[in-house]
Amino acid sequence: MAEPAHGGESGAEAIGMPQLDFTTFPSxxxxxxxxxxxxxxxxxxxxxxxxxxxxxxxxxAIEDDLDRAAEFRRxxxxxxxxxxxxxxxxxxxxxxxxxxxxxEAKADLDKAIAKADAExxxxxxxSEKRIGEIRDGAMASVEAVAAETAxxxxxxxxxxxxxxxxxxxxxxxxxxx
Amino acid sequence: xxxxxxxxxxxxxxxxxxxxxxxxxxxxLFTITNATLWMAIVVAVIALLLLGGSNxxxxxxxxxQSVGELMYGFVRQMVTDIAGEEGMxxxxxxxxxxxxxxxxxxxxxxxYSFTVTSHIAVTGVLALMVFVTVTAIGFIxxxxxxxxxxxxxxxxxxxxxxxxVIELISYFVRPISHSIRLGANMLxxxxxxxVFAGFVGALGVFGVVPIAAMVGLTAFEFLVxxxxxxxxxxxxxxxxxxxxxxx
Lengths: 177, 247
Description:
Largest sheet of chain B: none
Structural class of chain B: mainly alpha
Shape of chain B: globular
Order of helices and strands of chain A: HHHH
Number of helices of chain B: 7
Strand content of chain A: under 5%
Strand content of chain B: under 5%
Helix content of chain A: over 70%
Radius of gyration of chain B: 22 Å
Number of strands of chain B: 0
Structural class of chain A: mainly alpha
Oligomer: heterodimer
Distance between the termini of chain B: 66 Å
């Protein structure tokens, strides 16, 4: 029903190439320039600054984060170095203290040993002296007993023939000879 | 039946390209037509996409923001690759052209829509703007030395004038090929789709064959829509590079 009117209006053969209908050119060109100008200003004033801004901000943020990560890493490395140094120092100190303590202990020990040795030597000497005395005493007693015994024996064989001094001299000569 | 059949046969593949005043009246400079409407839609869609997407300004981009940034990065890469860092001065200009053509082509794929870039009046102006701007840049940058662009120094002596004529012709043909390549691609693609659509009614049950073909063609047309916008922008960059650095 609507077709005849539609067909009659457009007139199928009359369409041809709408692209070459020059009466539409001024309007098309005018509005194209308006549209392009509008688009150009929308892009340069609004869209591009936002897009470029967003991209740059992101870029900066990433760069900042990387910088901060590098800074943290540097600090961590520093902390590790400080820790290592402290550890090494502590170890050295511990070693030193141990050595010192050992040396002190050794000195004390040496001193004690020396003292003990001296005491032992003193006691040994005293003991030797006393043993010597005892031995001398014993020898003297033996001489006296021997002299007396000798005189008694000689007296019993030949009474009055000998004296105490003779017997003592003879015993002494005999013991020492 | 007969009238219905003749009505189907009546589909004119060129009807979709008619520029009609929206509010009636005679065609004049300021007449608002369907072409005006679709240019406005193109600008509005681009603005929505780029401005809506960049609202958040998040460090992690939203989906819409990613689309805007990808397009920005894509065109930026193209400009710097071809015309160098100097070309970045003209980036907004090329970005405007690329987005306008891309979205005109893509929105033209919508049923019942109007493809702005299928008109030689539009593509011609776009190409002429590039031609005039690039030539002006060439002369501003190099002064009269820019004429050397047409003088083949390395060619043998007697051949030089001949080559100069060829160079001149090829230079002035640029806007023509630049505009017709885009306009004709859009025109042909849409017309072919319409012709196939006309077959559907005429073939009855066997209409599935042209429908299948149209599905494939529609996919192909989307490819063409993107590629032609890319080609237009890349050629603009090439011309700009010629003007900036000569060759």
